[in-house]
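Sharing in case it's useful to others searching the archive later.

Someone asked me privately for the predicted structure of Putative gluconeogenesis factor, so I'm posting the question and my answer publicly. Question first, with the sequence:
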Amino acid sequence: MPGSHRSADRAQSVVALGGGHGLHASLRALRQLVDEVVVDDLTAVVTVADNGGSSGRLRGEFGVLPPGDLRMALAALCGEDQWGQTWERVLQHRFAGDGEMHGHAVGNLLIVALWEQLGDHVQALDLVGRLLGSAGRVLPMALTPLDITAQVRGLDPADEDALTLVRGQVEVATTGGVITRVDLEPASPVACPEALTALAAADWVVLGPGSWFSSVIPHLLVPDLRRALIETDARTVVVLNLDEQPGETGGFGPADHLAVLVEHAPELAVHTVLADTRMDPDELAHLREVTAAAGARLVVADVASDDGTPRHDPARLAAAYESILLGAVDAEQDGR
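And my answer, the predicted structure tokens:
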């Protein structure tokens, strides 16, 4: 049975879900655990709803999956040697100038070129991973481009309680109102079969951090992917964002992030909630309540970067993941 052989005395199989900078930080942390042989099988499952920037332009012109978040995940899994670091810089390089190439990332173009050559999303991403010497596999969460829609309260000045439909990942991420719910168009996309297989065999699933409504929750809205997350024997770790995201989660504290995720998928069994130490006592008390109501345990650790941005530090996040995966934390830790 998948997961029935779970044990801290062997390397673990991990599937990380998300997109953008949040998933990038999580994968950089998990890649360190691959190097330390704590994790022996690492898979990233990535959102495919981006409609902005280079990804949006390529999606619009060629009708392909938006490659940007997939590229960032691949870059995060590059090795620390000269080969890996060189390819990471190449993948992330964006063209300057004033012409049509302005703003395109090299990795986006490479991925789309391989899709056109091979006609297979997964085979092409696996080939890029081989080129990079990737420490894990990168998969799309669905095989067709998706659009995110949101019901947003507070956009109508004549009626502050009225709900307005906002469409598009960029638009949802930057909306000025309060998001009450997100959905996908189409509503029942085809999930990536390899992602479903990875979830069935995983020991651990990591959900978050990242743009909560546009990168994290969408995984729970793909019917087959949602079912796989609910039915897997893997233990699910929810990694909370460090701060609100203006527009998308304005005014959210740690407990609000967890509560809205549970609201979108009440059947999901959450094993561990990972939060940063930088909370005031009221925030921590509220998070304890919401975590307990979800039937999960709370781990509070120092995982934030010191650079002043609300981003996770990969090394600190790796240490927290290692403690969780190896069973070194059995009850709430308060970081003291």
